[in-house]
Specification:
This protein has about 675 residues and is an all-alpha fold. Helix content is about 75%, strand content about 0%. It has a two-stranded antiparallel ribbon. The longest helix has about 110 residues. The chain is rod-shaped.
Length: about 675
């Protein structure tokens, strides 16, 4: 379909008008696409004509506008020219005013500059004062620290270090000297720790060397306390006052608020011996300065290494305990060796007890009890070994008293000592055996030196002296005038006195063993029975059966044993009196002296019978008989006459025998005679 030319030209004109409006209203940088649409079309010439026409219209509008405003523009230029002149004048005035102002403000500027400098100095001074306010405590604290280190007051120095590190240095700021101080703090702590540990080692070494002095003082105090207790007991028995005294418990040591340590910072740990003598009323723990232990404990606690310190202390003390518990090889030779051994052990545990009650955790009760159990077993083993070498009853008795004092001392500090007393009972058996050996020698000496003759007494004084040694009562003999003879020989009162001495010796060992009177009485009676049935019996058997003992001596032995037998009930009364146990107590052990002396008497009688047989045999063997003769001569031989004379003298001796022994001896003697007479008659 063909388009209408007129319609097409109208559309082209409208399109060109749109493009022109778009060019006028669009940014020049963005008109490219618009112009491209013009060049892409076929009416380029028409558009150019349209564009030139639009330009001409705008030029005419501009010209109209310029013509309309030209007069105002000229007037404005004229006004500007007038203003330029006035501006030149104003500029000159301003320059002059500025010059004057500059001249006038120089002094003010100088003053303001001085004021600025003064204000700057004031600000710097204030800043300096503020910084010094924070730094001076640091310097003062560090100076205090140096002084404490110089005087070896390490625990306060450690507290000062802690305050310096956590309070003063953070407030002071980051200064070089603060940095140096902060770097020195770990080294100072290490130095304090090392020095305190060195002091502790010196203390432990000093304690090890002087533990015997500490133990000696503690045992003296225990002995004094026991004496006071005994005196108080006697007062109570008489209606006196109650018991006083007792072990003084050591008080826990506290540090003061300024960080001071107990006692002196530089004490060596042990007071001088002179101080010990002057301060005799002090306890053993008062002789020791424990400040090195307290100091080191507090220092390690602050450093957070308390466990390390506790382990070190306990290990070192265990090692020292092993050294203390090792006795010297010749300890058994003298009592002083045992004393030193006990003093060291007591000193060791006195120290541990004081540390237990004053340090609150450095050692505990379980540790001390474990250490005591170990020490007790080793001590008992050592005592059993070394006491077995002892053969002197006096030394063994002194050792027993020392062990009792040792046990009482440690029991006063709360340590169980029952095993020690059990060991003393074992030692008592050994003591009894040694006593039996000693009394065996004494009895033999008495029997060997005796003259086996009745004791002659010429005066009342001699008679009373013998009666004081032996309980003999004979009303008929007392009525006879002096001089007179006692029926027994000297060995009777001597043996009786020796038996009493033996009983006393047994009592001495049985005392202070924490046993009842009944138990002590039973122990003494059993020991006395051993003395009578074994030792004295063997000695009497020895005296009866030794060579060259005549019939007179045998008869005197019979008489002596008879009187000793009669004295047995006096011995029982004597034992009851010294043990305070009534003689009629149920289950009380009886003395076997009666059977002992009866056995000795029977042995003597057998010996007399044997000797008579031998003597008669000797007489008959010397005679020369004619056994083939048909009838005797009617007269006795000289040998038989001598035998009869011998028997007559022998029977004269038999008349001194007690009534209970005489018939038996006479019957046996007559049997011997009749047997000898039958031989004489048969042969003569």
């Amino acid at each position: 379909v063909e388009r209408d030319p007129e319609m097409a030209s109208v559309e082209v004109a409208a399109e060109h008008e749109r493009i022109l409006r778009e060019i006028e209203s669009t940014d020049p940088n963005c008109i490219g696409p618009t112009l491209r649409s013009v060049y892409d079309g076929q009416e380029h010439g028409l558009f150019m004509e349209k564009l030139e026409g639009r330009i001409r219209n705008h030029d005419r509008e501009i010209e109209k506008m310029c013509n309309h405003h030209f007069q105002g523009f000229v007037d404005s230029i004229t006004e500007l020219l007038k203003v330029r002149g006035e501006a030149q004048k104003l500029k000159g005035q301003v320059i002059q005013t500025n010059h004057n102002l500059q001249n006038d403000g120089k002094e003010t500027l100088n003053t303001m500059d001085e004021l600025r400098q003064c204000r700057l100095q004031q600000r710097n001074i204030a800043t300096t004062v503020d910084k010094l306010t924070h730094c001076l405590p640091v310097l003062e604290m560090y100076s205090k620290l140096q002084e404490q280190m110089k005087t070896k007051r390490y625990y306060p120095a450690l507290r000062t270090l802690d305050q310096l590190e956590h309070s003063c240095l953070p407030q002071a700021g980051a200064y070089l000297f603060c940095t140096i101080m902060a770097e020195n703090i770990p080294r100072l702590r290490a130095h304090i720790r090392d020095v305190s540990m060195s002091d502790l080692k010196d203390f432990l070494e000093s304690i090890r060397k002087h533990s015997d002095k500490i133990g000696e003082k503690a045992m003296k105090q225990a002995l004094l306390q026991r004496s006071l207790d005994g005196a108080n007991t006697q007062q109570q028995q008489r209606g006196g006052g109650g018991r006083q005294g007792g072990r003084k418990e050591p008080q826990a040591t506290e540090l003061d608020g300024q960080g001071g340590s107990p006692r002196s910072e530089q004490d060596s740990g042990i007071l001088d011996v002179e101080d010990e003598e002057e301060e005799g009323g002090l306890g053993a723990h008062d002789l020791v300065d424990f400040s090195p232990v307290y100091r080191c404990l507090h220092i390690y606690t602050v450093l957070g290494a308390r466990d390390t310190f506790e382990n070190y202390y306990r290990n070192q003390r265990r090692k020292q305990a092993r050294l203390v518990l090792q006795p010297h090889s010749n300890m058994h030779e003298t009592l002083e060796g045992y004393r030193r051994y006990f003093n060291q052990i007591v000193g060791f545990f006195v120290v541990e007890d004081h540390v237990l009650h004053t340090t609150r955790g450095l050692v505990n009760r379980a540790y001390v009890e474990e250490l005591w159990e170990l020490s007790l077993s080793k001590t008992i083993a050592a005592l059993r070994t070394h006491s077995s070498y002892c053969t002197d009853p006096d030394l063994l008795l002194d050792l027993k008293n020392l062990i009792v004092l040792f046990a009482d001392t440690l029991q006063g500090y709360g340590f169980p000592v029952n095993q020690l007393f059990d060991m003393l009972l074992e030692m008592r058996d050994q003591y009894g055996e040694i006593l039996l050996k000693k009394w065996n020698t004494s009895f033999r000496q008495i029997l060997d030196l005796d003259n086996y003759s009745p004791i002659p007494v010429a005066t009342e004084e001699d008679y009373r002296r013998v009666m004081g040694q032996f309980p003999f009562q004979d009303p008929e003999l007392e009525k006879t005038a002096f001089p007179k003879k006692l029926p027994f020989s000297a060995f009777v009162p001597k043996v009786y006195c020796q038996i009493k001495e033996f009983i006393y010796a047994c009592l001495k060992f049985s005392e202070d063993l924490h046993r009842s009177s009944t138990e002590i009485d039973d122990m003494i009676r059993k020991s006395t029975n051993l003395l009578l049935t074994r030792t004295l019996s063997h000695c009497l058997q020895y005296a009866i059966k030794k060579k060259n003992v005549g019939l007179a001596e045998l008869v005197q032995i019979i008489i002596n044993t008879t009187h000793l037998e009669q004295s047995c009930h006096f011995l029982e009364e004597f034992i009851s009196n010294i043990t305070n146990v009534p003689p009629g107590t149920i289950n009380a052990t009886k003395l076997y002296g009666t059977s002992t002396f009866k056995d000795a008497r029977h042995t003597a009688e057998e010996e007399i019978y044997t000797n008579l047989n031998q003597k008669i045999d000797q007489f008959l063997q010397l005679a020369d008989y004619d056994w083939m003769v048909a009838q005797g001569g009617g007269t006795a031989s000289d040998y038989l006459s001598d035998l009869i004379a011998f028997l007559c003298s022998t029977f004269t001796v038999f008349t001194h025998l007690p009534v209970r022994c005489g018939p038996d001896v006479f019957s046996r003697a007559y049997g011997v005679i009749w047997s000898g007479g039958a031989v004489e008659v048969g042969g003569g």
